[in-house]
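Appendix B. One record, verbatim.
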Amino acid sequence: MVVHLAAQAGVRYSLENPHAYVDSNLIGFTNILEGCRHNPVQHLIFASSSSIYGKNTQVPFSVADPVDSPVSLYAATKKANELMAHAYSHLYQIPTTGLRFFTVYGPWGRPDMAYYKFVQAIAEDRPIDVYNYGKMMRDFTYIDDVITGIVKLIPHQTKLQPPYKIYNLGNNHPIELQEFIATIETLMGKFAQKNFLPMQPGDVVATYADITELMSDIGFNPTTSVAQGLASFVNWYRSYYGYNTVSEKSLPSKLSTAV
């Protein structure tokens, strides 16, 4: 079994260093496919991304939706990965599953992601950048739910010909950015200094996963709310960076009802 989750991730960094995405996501993924081709692999699971939905405005996002309009190089490399995997699956009968992840977060997450940067900035009394003036929605998916889905999929082999399948792996409950920030403020016991900015190149207004097929095929059912997931992350952050814990009694009254 091969579970390939490595990649050069992130939309904004793809604007700064496109060659890193070509090296990791195209050349690197080709090496994985070639390794699977020349060895008896029972199942290849690989990471795709919700970013490939690009300009799609129909929500929730379905795997049946067209994904031919990526708005970032990162998204384009992930769409290329799906096409490359399909070709190898067809040519060499490699059972293959691609997972379109929706904003995975949690302890030990990527420091370039918004939730991590928000918590760090609030802890250090720095302003946070809030894009599209906060008028955005994201389908945040907690890492434990993601791992549960992957583990259930490992022994699950599609019977399609070619043996290839794409799934959305998300929480199926998008949340507004302003509510997301309010939850972090409650957990941190501090209000964020907000720097409201316009939409950034390569970004999208909303993500929302249709997980019907994954629920039907493996019984996938994410159970972690955003409040629970962020609490786990903030607890980890405090422990890892030595940030002082704030007692519940010291929370500002306007924050106490956010979670």
